[in-house]
Amino acid sequence: MSIFDRISGSFSGLGGNMSADMAIDVGTANTLIAMSGEGIVINEPSVVAIEKSTHRVLAVGHEAKNMINHTPDAFSAEHPLKDGVIADYDVTEAMISAFINKAAPRKYPWQSKPRIVICIPCGATSVETRAVFEAAIQAGARQAYLIEEPMAAAMGADLPVTEPTGSMVVDIGGGTTEVAVISLGGIVTSSSLRLAGNKMDEAILVHLRDLLGIKIGERTAEVIKIKIGSILPFEDGHERDMIISGQDMVTEQPKEVTIQSEDVRAALIEP
Known about the structure:
Layout: H1 3-9, H2 12-15, E1 22-26, E2 30-35, E3 39-45, E4 48-51, E5 57-60, H3 61-70, E6 75-78, E7 81-82, E8 85-86, H4 89-103, E9 115-120, H5 126-138, E10 143-148, H6 149-156, E11 167-172, E12 177-183, E13 186-193, H7 197-212, E14 214-215, H8 218-228, E15 241-248, E16 254-260, H9 261-269
Parallel strand pairs: 1-9, 9-10
Antiparallel strand pairs: 1-2, 2-3, 4-5, 4-6, 7-8, 11-12, 12-13, 14-15, 15-16
């Protein structure tokens, strides 16, 4: 803790604690930051733009994604988390630090750093857990607290986690699916599957390629999943459709087709 962090604590009686405590969910696909009294203030892709010639971090989140789309030869897109855990420590630290500064910039040198609660998969190893903790501290946290993702999800859904009754949580993220039974303030049993939203996108992409002969990107597959994806028939009895654009697998020319929600369902339930 720096001298400025210690001094800032003495100002609590004058103007309140000037630090901004926050909760961070660093996911494989997206990173979310919530602040007390404000709700979610950051919801951006877990993507970092790296300049290829110098290996410098230039941008994170939406800015990084847009930069790479416009000049793909000059920059590379780094996804520092794989299957819900840190794959590149330095890039993850830079990404978390940038998001923290964007969510709550330190306007004064005496302003204390934030306390941070950060989510981890319930199946994370001790090494992976330590890596998340160290990345949060190095990124600018005054104090870091770890919470398992199913417990955070249950608390956010206002389930009776402290009661002597079982509550089951299935938390499907981008890289992992967390399944847990919670009771009396703890996780009774849990399982972490490294099979989640990204695999669904991949399944949709492959299915449409084989069924309609159209090549689409991962982003388009994700949009399809969100807009018309459903494992079960819709309650109103009406299926959904959507017009998508891609590349014809034979002619390599632009191609536009209309797909049905049944196509997405078939992609997700096929063995």
